[in-house]
């Protein structure tokens, strides 16, 4: 009976407090209690605390966060956030592979990116793994480690003689074999000692296919594949205009900085101008092909303007700049001839806009693209020779021609000029040549402008509009600087996607996130060199490094956060992407032609391990030397294990190489480029070229590309 009265008293007090404080208040249910008078053995009366409380204990109280305060809304308690589950909990998150998974080929780098988007944002559920308890994931850490390959994970491997993976490691050319694309279970006792830490962190080694194009023998950027997400098809967002990162500062750049080099012009099929050739027999014997002309430029140095003649702050550097666009019609099978030319000066005024009658009869006006009709051409008497003569009068040594895929226009004009700015080269396709981004897309992306609206209709294209669009793109690039638009592509930056569509759930964001709420996810990019000049500049936090040790420290800092929270938020960011490069440099996978060792973003300087100051007696008694590769792998494994040990619970951990061994592919690609350069040089003879490119070399390149596209990856949960 006494217990029943106490319960009634408790309910009465709670109701009175709720009425007095209003519909929403906090009550300390742990410390507020009903006190009863209790007589002690010495006769004194002291208050005692009843076992009852203002809130009945629920079965899930053990899983609630501590603190004891309960929020009351509209007279009803709101459930508090759940604790991070323990590893033995039934709701601990996981990423599991099953033989019943829908896996029919190697996973690729894009699959890893999409896994991240599924866990943290609006990505589709993967079919090749099972993701358990997605709402419970707290963080994701993805580290790119080029230089690793599957052959290294064989027990008993002699690293001192290891030179690279065997060609058989690449994907076969026939029907995919499950043994090639299924993940391999990692067993510690079957791994080399230096790589055994991987078995403590990951259950499987995954074959991962690097992005590339087998048809053109190209390996695409794995970094771009990871950090670029496709735009959601159902969002109807279209092309998103370029956005500048926080802290962006314009850097006015002269147009001469964007001139295509002789090598770029030759590689992209531009007509050869004699000034592009080195002084000597080839230049002296140069002759234009029949019907062709070249501008009056004797030497490339003739185009340079003395600084005293250049107006201060001028981006044209004293040069005459003309935007060119042409329209063509078909005069034969796969043969196009000039039918309209438009030339626009730097100030936007039209210098030349002429219709041209081809020498051959037109068999298809291609009006839906060219905008040219029979009625327009019939009364025209202007010929190609007339246009060539006028252009030779306009263009001189100090003239720059700019346009989009200008090689096609110059071939239609049968004209060669050595000073070219091409927007298809200035804003390259993210997957590299021979692919090019359309002028329509560039205008939408970088000018927020719609052009070529008549494409595919009887109106066709407007060559003046296209020329002015190219002009405005180059002007914008000159105003913003070389880095502007460099990291933009046809997808959406992964860091931006996570910030825009990052999803939180009730377990991490409270009741208002029940079912998932797009609240955005914070991120960090940790990499060698200046991260702000790469796709990582869109991350919440950027950490630039000069060594793998700094990368490790940067990852741990991004995970834990800064004590003051001024740069890295307290508690760390949600997603971390990083890259370690010392193994890549040691293996020779790093392209040293682009950066020198002393640069902040360059590979570490090579060391001479062949010489030693140890005397002969000590050499005889010394233990066998450890190879640099084995030492580097040991250090790498220890770094990754330290990072893993410092990860908070419920963190997805991904390590991937990005590519396989690219060295042989790079050698053959350089050989192919040299062959094309020499072959396309006027006056060259096939049997006198310094290199030859036959079907044998072509097949070797295809096999080398398969090896380069055979990467590996590891997926686990801390």
What attributes does this structure have?
alpha/beta, five-stranded mixed sheet, 718 residues, nine-stranded mixed sheet
Report on this model:
- Helices cover 28% and strands 18% of the residues.
- The chain has 22 helices and 29 strands.
- The strands form nine sheets. Strands 7, 9, 10, 11, 25, 26, 27, 28 and 29 form a nine-stranded mixed β-sheet that branches. The chain has a five-stranded mixed β-sheet with strand order 18-17-16-19-21, with helices on both faces. A three-stranded antiparallel β-sheet has the order 1-4-5, with no helix packed on it.
- Strand 16 and strand 17 form a beta hairpin.
- The longest helix has 20 residues, at 2-21.
- The two termini are 52 Å apart.
What's the quick description here?
The protein is built from 22 helices and 29 strands.
From the helix content, strand content and strand pairing, which structural class follows?
alpha/beta
Overall strand count: 29
Helices, by number, come to 22
Q: Mean pLDDT, as a whole number?
A: 81
Uncertain segments? 13-68, 592-601, 606-614
Beta-strand portion reads 15-25%
- The best one-word shape is globular
Using only C-alpha atoms, the radius of gyration works out to 34 Å
Largest sheet: 9 strands, mixed
Helix content: 25-40%
Protein name: Exonuclease domain-containing protein
Region (Disordered): 31-73, 159-182, 229-248, 600-626
Organism: Sordaria brevicollis
Domain Exonuclease: 320-483
């Amino acid at each position: 009976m006494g217990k029943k009265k106490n319960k009634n008293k408790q309910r009465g007090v709670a109701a009175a407090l709720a009425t007095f404080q209003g519909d929403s208040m906090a009550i300390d249910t742990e410390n507020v209690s009903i006190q009863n008078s209790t007589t002690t053995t010495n006769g004194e009366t002291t208050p005692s605390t009843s076992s009852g409380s203002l809130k009945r204990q629920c079965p899930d109280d053990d899983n609630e966060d501590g603190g004891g305060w309960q929020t009351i809304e509209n007279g009803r308690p709101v459930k508090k956030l759940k604790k991070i589950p323990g590893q033995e909990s039934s709701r601990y998150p996981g990423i599991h592979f099953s033989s019943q998974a829908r896996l029919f080929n190697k996973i690729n780098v894009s699959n890893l990116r999409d896994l991240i988007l599924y866990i943290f944002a609006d990505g589709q559920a993967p079919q090749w793994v099972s993701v358990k308890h997605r709402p419970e994931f707290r963080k994701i850490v993805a580290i790119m480690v080029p230089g690793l390959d599957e052959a290294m994970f064989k027990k008993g491997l002699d690293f001192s003689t290891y030179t690279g993976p065997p060609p058989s490691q690449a994907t076969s050319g026939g029907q995919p074999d499950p043994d090639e694309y299924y993940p391999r279970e990692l067993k510690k006792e079957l791994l080399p000692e230096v790589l055994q830490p991987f078995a403590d962190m990951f259950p499987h080694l995954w074959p991962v296919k690097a992005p590339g194009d087998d048809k053109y023998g190209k390996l695409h950027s794995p970094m771009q594949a990871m950090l670029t997400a496709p735009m959601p098809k159902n969002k109807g967002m279209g092309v998103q205009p370029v956005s500048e990162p926080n802290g962006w500062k314009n850097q006015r750049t002269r147009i001469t900085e964007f001139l295509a080099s002789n090598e770029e012009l030759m590689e992209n099929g531009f007509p050869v101008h004699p000034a592009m050739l080195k002084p000597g027999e080839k230049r002296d014997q140069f002759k234009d092909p029949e019907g062709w002309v070249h501008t009056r430029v004797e030497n490339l140095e003739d185009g340079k303007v003395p600084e005293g003649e250049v107006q201060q702050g001028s981006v044209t550097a004293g040069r005459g700049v003309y935007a060119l666009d042409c329209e063509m019609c078909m005069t034969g099978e796969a043969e196009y001839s000039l039918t309209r030319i438009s030339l626009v000066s730097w100030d936007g005024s039209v210098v030349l806009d002429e219709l041209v009658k081809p020498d051959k009869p037109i068999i298809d006006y291609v009006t839906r693209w060219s905008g040219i009709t029979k009625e327009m051409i019939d009364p025209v008497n202007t010929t190609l020779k007339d246009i060539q003569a006028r252009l030779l009068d306009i263009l001189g040594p100090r003239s720059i021609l700019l346009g989009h895929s200008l090689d096609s226009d110059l071939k239609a004009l049968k004209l060669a000029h050595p000073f070219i700015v091409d927007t298809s080269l200035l804003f390259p396709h993210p997957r590299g040549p021979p692919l090019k981004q359309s002028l329509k897309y560039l205008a939408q992306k970088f000018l927020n402008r719609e052009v070529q609206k008549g494409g595919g209709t009887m109106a066709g294209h407007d060559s003046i509009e296209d020329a002015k669009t190219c002009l405005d793109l180059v002007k914008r690039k000159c105003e913003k600087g070389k880095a502007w638009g460099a990291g933009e592509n046809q997808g959406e930056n992964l860091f931006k996607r996570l910030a825009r569509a990052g999803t939180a759930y009730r377990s991490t964001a409270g009741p208002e996130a029940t079912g998932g709420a797009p609240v955005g996810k914070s991120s960090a990019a940790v990499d060698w060199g200046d991260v702000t000049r790469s796709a990582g500049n869109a991350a919440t936090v950027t950490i630039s490094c000069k060594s793998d040790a700094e990368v490790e420290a940067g990852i741990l800092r991004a995970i834990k956060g800064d004590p003051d929270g001024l740069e890295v938020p307290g508690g760390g960011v949600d997603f971390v992407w990083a890259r370690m490069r010392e193994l890549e440099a040691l293996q020779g996978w790093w392209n040293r032609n682009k950066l020198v060792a002393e640069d902040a973003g360059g590979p570490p300087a090579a060391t001479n391990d062949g010489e030693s100051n140890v005397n002969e007696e000590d050499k005889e008694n010394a233990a066998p030397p450890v190879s640099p590769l084995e030492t580097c792998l040991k250090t790498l494994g220890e770094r990754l294990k330290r990072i893993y040990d410092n990860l908070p619970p419920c963190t997805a951990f991904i390590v991937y190489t990005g590519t396989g061994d690219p060295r042989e592919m790079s050698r053959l690609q350089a050989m192919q480029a040299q062959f094309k350069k020499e072959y396309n040089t006027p006056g060259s003879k096939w049997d006198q070229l310094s290199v030859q490119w036959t079907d044998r070399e072509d097949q070797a390149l295809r096999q080398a590309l398969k090896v380069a596209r055979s990467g590996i990856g590891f997926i686990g949960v801390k």
